[in-house]
TrEMBL record:
It comes from the Bacteria. This is Putative oxidoreductase YcjS. The gene is ycjS_2. It comes from Maliponia aquimaris. SUPFAM superfamilies: Glyceraldehyde-3-phosphate dehydrogenase-like, C-terminal domain (SSF55347), NAD(P)-binding Rossmann-fold domains (SSF51735). Residues 6-118 form the Gfo/Idh/MocA-like oxidoreductase N-terminal domain. One of its GO terms (molecular function) is oxidoreductase activity. Pfam families: GFO_IDH_MocA, GFO_IDH_MocA_C3.
Length: 343
């Protein structure tokens, strides 16, 4: 893989897969060779060689990398099939697996096979979080005391909520955190380091769905900083495209505040000032999340070519799953849970 283009095959051709396939086509060091879906017409619609059986595709195409773009219930079987067919680089969409035990087992099986398993947690690759991380690390706003994100996509009201885009959302028994807030569990870790404790208060507002769709989660960090995730899928925020950032954020420190607005722009206000300066312009990429899917996949390809380890390996991602479990336990028990007791 050091010099040749990486041969990529995709598994899954649902709603979100369009961003994966588009990104692969824009990475010069990669070559999309095939797509697989149980609905062969969907696989054909990707424009790649189409298959409706994973093992058949892997044997025929011999890809260097398999991109698993499936819901959690189908991920374990896909990863194990890929390992058995000799694939040694796999990217798997989040949420990874159906339980912490299954995620650990898959991680260990991939490691035992000498395969790289990466989780497609792409929010940390959004340009506003990459820029915010650089500014925080540089001390731009002094000592960080709080980071807040308000999730407000405005897509959760009424009996048809989610049906037009991702209908399986309605049946997920764990929804807001497992499907959505997990992005910010990882993003807060990226920005502030591993949290030390969590407290959560979750609720279901829409009676037609199975899981929770609103709630607040408070994270403690060893630095003394706190992070607050405030999510409500019924409410919106000021943005032409409410899915661009999914909401608004504040990073507050002793020397200033950085604000993320719904257009993907970052604004820095110095402590005591009445005005702010734009440090990242609005997103004009026209694709999902500031083209974060392309950024993540480019990162993995660069690591494969360079022989370095990507950020979101399965092993590195396991703490996100443990923290998610602690969030649900906190909501069920009504107490703050220390994270230093997690595996």
């Amino acid at each position: 893989m050091a010099t040749d283009r990486i041969r990529v095959a995709g598994l899954g051709a649902g709603y979100f897969s369009r961003f994966h396939y588009d990104a692969w086509r824009r990475i010069p060091e990669a070559m999309l060779v095939a797509a697989c879906d149980r609905d062969i017409d969907k696989a054909r619609a990707t424009g790649a060689a189409a298959y409706d059986d994973l093992a058949t595709m892997l044997r025929a195409e011999r890809p260097d990398l398999l991109d698993v773009i499936l819901p959690p219930v189908a991920q374990a079987a896909a990863i194990r099939t890929a390992l058995s067919e000799g694939v040694r680089a796999i990217i798997c969409q989040k949420p990874f697996a159906t339980s912490p035990e299954e995620a650990r087992a898959l991680t260990e099986e991939a490691e035992a096979a000498g395969a790289l398993l990466v989780i497609h947690e792409n929010f940390r690759f959004q340009p506003w979080y990459r820029t915010l991380k650089t500014r925080l690390d540089a001390g731009e706003i002094g000592t960080v005391q709080q980071v807040t994100f308000r999730l407000r996509p405005g897509d959760g009201q009424g009996p048809r909520a989610y049906l037009d885009r991702q209908p399986y959302f309605q049946q997920m028994p764990r929804f807001l955190v497992h499907e959505t807030a997990v992005h910010w569990i990882d993003s807060f870790r990226y920005l502030l380091g591993p949290p030390t404790a969590v407290y959560a208060d979750l609720r279901r507002l829409n009676p037609v769905i199975a899981g929770e769709d609103a709630g607040v989660i408070l994270f403690d960090f060893a630095s003394g900083a706190r992070a607050l995730f405030d999510g409500n899928r019924h409410l919106d925020h000021a943005a032409e495209n409410t899915r661009c950032t999914m909401g608004e954020a504040l990073a507050e420190g002793t020397q200033g505040t950085i604000t993320l607005t719904g257009d993907g722009a970052l604004h820095l206000r110095r402590f005591g000032a009445l005005t702010s300066e734009t440090i990242l312009p609005p997103d004009r990429s026209g694709t999902f999340g500031g083209d974060c899917v392309h950024a993540l996949q480019s990162h993995v390809v660069a690591c494969l070519h360079g022989g370095t380890e990507p950020e979101n390996t399965a092993r590195a991602y396991l703490p996100v799953i443990d923290i998610e479990q602690a969030v649900y336990a906190s909501a069920a028990e009504g107490r703050k849970i220390a994270l230093d007791t997690l595996p």
